[in-house]
Design goal:
The complex is a heterodimer.
Chain A lengths: L1 H14 L1 H9 L16 H13 L3 H4 L3 E9 L2 E16 L2 E7 L8 E8 L1 H4 L11 E2 L1 H5 L10 H11 L3 E6 L15 E5 L8 H11 L3 H7 L20 E10 L12
Antiparallel strand pairs in A: 1-2, 1-7, 2-3, 3-4, 4-6, 5-6, 6-7
Chain B lengths: L1 E2 L15 E6 L4 E7 L59 H13 L3 H4 L3 E9 L2 E16 L2 E7 L8 E8 L1 H5 L3 H4 L3 E2 L1 H5 L10 H11 L3 E6 L15 E4 L11 H11 L3 H7 L15 H5 L1 E10 L9
Antiparallel strand pairs in B: 1-2, 2-3, 4-5, 4-10, 5-6, 6-7, 7-9, 8-9, 9-10
The chains are: A alpha+beta, B alpha+beta.
Protein name (chain A): Oil body-associated protein 1a
Family (chain A): Belongs to the OBAP family.
InterPro entries (chain A): OBAP-like
């Protein structure tokens, strides 16, 4: 049975975990700008160690998977970011991910991604669909991968991911060297065509994680995308998207409480 | 499965999204009807008939990229993405997926998410509509003495939905930010001192040192899933959130607080009393909590633009 086979892979790989982890801890992305501020005081650190053990972290414990992929700004394809997704299933059809700029302890939380299956994507309003992107190209192209997981196991999941749509929002523009999360949120898009991904970024990631996108491409030939093809409104309908800040009047204090239908 | 949309006659919408009605059968998707909501919107159709090669059929022109839902839209689009109650659409997680996940857990390091070691429960207000208030659960990682990053969920159960991200900075860092940036931030003194903010599971006394340092901080909170609006999936642009303040329109609904207090066996009144001695910041930057001085909140729009590319990449 396929699952049993996968399990034997798990066991084999468990033996290699230590060396894997050690290698991963040296995986620094390109020039890491330090976040401004004083080092954590001992008292604070101690307290937070206590809270870390006493309090409950169930939503975080639901995060079971690390995916690495590339995003670019929905208004600027030339700005590309290596995005480390830490994902959990809300159910079989919906996942939610925290996006960091590296897989290390000092990683900065830079964004969020939601992933839904095709059938749910189709229920979205038409003016929502452009904010979502398809995953078919980046999965089949080998650019989206699960660091540390053997190809065969990885492909079990990527088979599903290939058919999904994602919505990514970034809050911290680390690619332009921002030391803090400045500005407004950015809608991000994913690779949809060959030639989009910057060669240097690709080579750098391949080297650090010991993967080869081309090899993956070969092995993922039998994966298929969304059953109905990529929706024309997805991926910003082939155009660009930009977020803008707008001032709004604050409703007066005497307004009645809202009722949401 | 039907993606049915109903026409809304309400003039509540500032701008009505274009309407399409889909019938998503097992083998085909057909567009049942389409209604133009804007005079300028060109018609488009995306369908294929049963038996034909799957995919979206030709369209009359480039798909019309309409204005996407702003963070301040009062109601999200009329589709199953919004429904009675706010239950999550979709099937329960399968055993296969769980196995893959547990396998991944054993092989991958998950280092970044393991750094979160503080859980706070508080309330946030929508920056464009302070009467909309939500209970939030922040899972916090301290980067250094002056900066924290938080993953924000709508509950602390395994089924919690990820609804946004908040960043917290000390007053020292805040003062270095340009004023245009400062307007997006809110102060924390009021919500901490009045017991709205609490660390579930921690005795009040142990919470003290953390609160002392957080009272003087400022936060920037983007909400990506407006669950209180009934959205069953994350819709629209992210929303800027604000914090409760000692002003009528920004006080948290007491019912919300009571419900939270009951859940965690805490008392906001007691917390408030025990924190009364806590030093307040001598001064809160007037650019923070921008609405207080200026009567204006902020919303985010998403607008279509030409994609910047290097030419060769189209």
């Amino acid at each position: 049975m396929k699952l049993a086979q996968s399990h034997s892979y798990y066991i084999k790989s468990v033996i290699e975990i230590e060396s894997e982890r050690e290698r991963e801890s040296n995986l620094m992305a390109t020039s890491h700008v330090d976040v401004p501020g004083e080092p954590t005081e001992t008292g604070t650190a101690l307290l937070e160690t206590a809270t870390g053990t006493i309090q409950g972290f169930q939503p975080i414990n639901n995060i079971h998977q690390h995916l690495c992929a590339f995003h670019f700004y929905a208004h600027d394809m030339t700005r590309q970011v290596e995005a480390h997704h830490f994902c959990g299933h809300l159910n079989e059809d919906v996942r939610q991910c925290l996006i960091y700029d590296s897989p290390n302890k000092d990683a900065r939380l830079i964004g969020i991604e939601y992933i839904v299956v095709e059938s749910l994507f189709l229920t979205l309003p038409d003016d929502e669909k452009p904010l979502w992107h398809s995953h078919e190209f980046e999965v089949k192209g080998g650019y989206l991968f699960m660091p540390g997981v053997p190809g065969m196991v990885e492909r079990q999941d990527l088979k599903q991911v290939c058919k999904t749509y994602g919505k990514v929002i970034h809050f911290w523009q680390v690619d332009r060297g921002d030391p803090l999360p400045l500005g407004i949120p950015q809608i991000m898009m994913a690779l949809t065509r060959p030639g989009q991904l910057d060669e240097n970024i690709a080579k750098d990631v391949e080297k650090r994680f010991g993967v080869s996108f081309e090899e993956q491409r070969e092995q993922r030939k039998d994966l298929t995308g969304p059953d109905h093809g990529i929706h024309p409104l997805a991926n910003a309908a082939g155009r660009g998207l930009k977020t803008e800040l707008r001032e709004v009047d604050i409703p007066p204090a005497t307004s009645m409480p809202r009722v949401f239908v | 499965m039907h993606g049915i949309a109903h026409v809304s006659e309400s003039t509540d919408y500032e701008r009505t999204p274009p309407l399409t009605v889909w019938n998503t059968g097992k083998d085909d998707i057909s567009l049942i009807s389409i209604q133009k909501s804007f005079k300028e919107a060109p018609r488009y159709s995306c369908y294929h008939k049963k038996g034909q090669k799957k995919g979206y059929k030709g369209i009359h022109s480039v798909p019309y990229l309409n204005r996407s839902m702003a963070s301040s839209d009062k109601k999200s689009g009329p589709t199953p993405a919004i429904g009675p109650g706010s239950t999550l659409p979709g099937k329960p997680t399968t055993l296969g997926s769980k196995l893959i996940e547990s396998g991944a857990m054993m092989l991958q390091s998950m280092a970044p998410v393991r750094q979160m070691n503080l859980h706070a429960c508080t309330f946030a207000l929508y920056g464009h509509d302070l009467s909309r208030q939500i209970e939030t659960h922040h899972f916090i990682q301290r980067i250094n003495q002056d900066f924290l990053q938080c993953a924000v969920f709508d509950s602390d159960k395994p089924s919690a939905r990820l609804i946004g991200v908040e960043y917290i900075v000390s007053d020292n860092i805040f003062e270095t930010l340009p004023s245009e940036e400062q307007k997006l931030w809110h102060s924390h003194a009021y919500e901490i001192k009045t017991g709205l903010w609490t660390l579930p599971g921690m005795p009040e006394l142990l919470q003290d040192p953390e609160h002392k340092s957080l009272t003087k901080t400022y936060g920037k909170f983007w909400c990506t899933w407006q669950v209180d609006r009934g959205d069953r999936l994350p819709l629209g642009a992210p929303s800027l959130m604000m914090s409760a303040q000692a002003v009528d329109i920004a006080r948290v609904n007491p019912e919300l607080v009571k419900r939270r207090d009951r859940k965690y066996g805490v008392s906001r009144g007691d917390a408030k009393e025990s924190r009364v001695e806590m030093a307040e910041p001598e001064w809160i930057n007037p650019n923070a909590d921008y609405w207080k001085q200026h009567g204006k909140g902020f919303a985010i729009d998403v607008v279509p633009v030409e994609m910047k590319s290097s030419g060769a990449l189209i």
